[in-house]
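User: I'm putting together a teaching handout on how sequence relates to shape, and I'd like one worked example. Could you take Alkylphosphonate utilization operon protein PhnA from Photobacterium aphoticum, show the sequence you're using, and then write out its predicted structure as tokens right after it?

Assistant: Happy to. First the sequence, then the structure tokens directly below it.
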Amino acid sequence: MSIESIVKQRSGAKCELCASEDNLSVYEVPASPDKTAGSCVMVCGTCRTEIEDAETLDQNHWRCLNDSMWSQEPAVQVMAYRMLKRLSSETWAQDLLDMMYMEEDKVEWAEKGLLADEDKPRDVNGVELKKGDDVTIIKDLPVKGSSMVIKQGTAVRGINLTNDPKHVQGKVDGQTMFIIAEYCRKK
């Protein structure tokens, strides 16, 4: 039996994350310990697109994780954990993450996949920031070493990336400064 047929049978021909029956395909969970059906999940086109491209993330779509996080399939648990981590700025997602129970080896697997994403700067919604992007500051930020405060809602145009994925560089009031990426929202 092929991996695809095993996963399709296991899932009941439904997305294992949101239960949709449309546009299904097998998704191999990144950083999997092996290359078996146990390291794959059946996903719909919407889930696949949003897993692979954080810019398309529709937070309300992922409320389905309330059910799928309790799956007995380790690969489904790992994907639910990763998506909840990506959405952890949302109160409901953080609440689900706090309730979720996984065995240590599954948490390690889930974290390995998250570490691969950590080398990229991400905004408050988990969207990857790229050189030249325009961002908006989401809260008042005091500037170290001065009395200046970057006000919430300030637009920073044409950011640059830094060696530290937690920071981006941009001009505010004519001065170039480093800004913590998670306090930005991509426009």
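A couple of points you could highlight for students: The helical segments are 3-11, 45-52, 65-68, 74-86, 91-99, 104-117. Strands lie at 25-28, 40-43, 135-137, 141-142, 149-150, 155-156, 160-161, 167-172, 175-180, 184-186.
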